[in-house]
Amino acid sequence: MSIVIKTPAEIEKMRVAGRLAAEVLDHIGPFVRPGVTTAAIDHECHRYMTEVQHTIPAPLNYAPPGYRPFPKSICTSVNHVVCHGVPGEKKLRAGDVVNIDVTVIAEGYHGDSSRMYYVGEPPILARRLCDITYECMWLGIETVRPGAYLGDIGHAIQTYAEGNGFSVVREFCGHGIGKRFHEEPQVLHYGRPRTGTRLEAGMIFTVEPMINAGRPDIRQLADGWTVVTKDHSLSAQWEHTVLVTDSDHEVLTVSAGTPPPPGLVGRGGRDGAR
Ligand code: MF3
Ligand code: CO
Ligand code: CO
């Protein structure tokens, strides 16, 4: 399979799917409090998707090659969990940081986005890691335009993460997305400028850097899904689904509650979140 160039009609469906994914993230914000279990957060997201939005939670029973079916409707990755955290009965505690990753299917098209949430008041290092990771995602997104290269995205992310003393997880990457959850291309969060695939209008992919406070190494838990840092250092992740437009890019996973781009990213009035 090669990279799918989306038609205008498909792009419109991807805008809808992207907005719906972002709206789940908006909806769940007030539920993220000390004492709440990640299973309860999953349950509320599942209810909102299926009963309010009439969307399908893409993670539920998702089973890529080599994986058992994912048992829940969202991923909840707390503190040193890098990604693919399986919601469960453990309660969130004040000071935790948690990534909530939502992928909806609407009219056959996928929208995929994740944000970091603070449980109470997190420590200064956790806040800094979440902020830097958010800036990493946006610095990657800002390189996206026709004629740019996938390596430009990775290079922008890696340079900023490592320049701030953090590390980039290598084993997981962004991905093309559309009718399928994970399509070509793979969008690495590290790399060299002007290397890799050249971007063309109509491509849609995610940018979803996982950044660790300590070493980049990871380990997968016995549940077959949960990925943690080997050194148990904190990890953060943010994710948007992005379209390559004729002249630059458009972030598709945008809703009323989407956080604005960080101050360090140039303001061109292009992205819906502005
Ligand atoms: N949403 C994740 C991503 O950004 C994938 C999760 S796969 C699952 O690609 F099965 F764990 F949901
Ligand atoms: Co995701
Ligand atoms: Co993704």
Please give the structural blueprint.
Elements: H1 8-28, H2 38-53, E1 56-57, E2 75-78, E3 81-83, E4 97-106, E5 109-118, H3 124-142, H4 150-163, E6 167-168, E7 174-176, E8 183-187, E9 204-207, E10 210-212, E11 218-220, E12 227-229, E13 235-237, E14 240-244, E15 249-251
Helix pairs in contact: 1-2, 3-4
This protein binds 2-amino-4-trifluoromethylsulfanyl-butyric acid and cobalt (II) ion (CO) (2 copies).
2-amino-4-trifluoromethylsulfanyl-butyric acid is lined by residues 59, 62, 70, 75, 84, 101, 103, 112, 175, 206, 208, 225, 239.
Q: How would you describe the overall organization of this protein?
A:
The chain is globular and about 45 Å long. The C terminus is likely disordered. It has one domain: Alpha-Beta Complex (Creatine Amidinohydrolase), CATH 3.90.230. It has four helices and 15 strands. β14 and β15 form a beta hairpin. The strands form five sheets. Strands 1, 2, 4 and 5 form a four-stranded antiparallel beta sheet that branches. The chain has a three-stranded antiparallel beta sheet with strand order 3-12-11, with no helix packed on it. It is of the alpha+beta class and 274 residues long. Bound molecules: 2-amino-4-trifluoromethylsulfanyl-butyric acid (MF3) and cobalt (II) ion (CO) (2 copies). The site of 2-amino-4-trifluoromethylsulfanyl-butyric acid (MF3) has 13 residues, from β4.
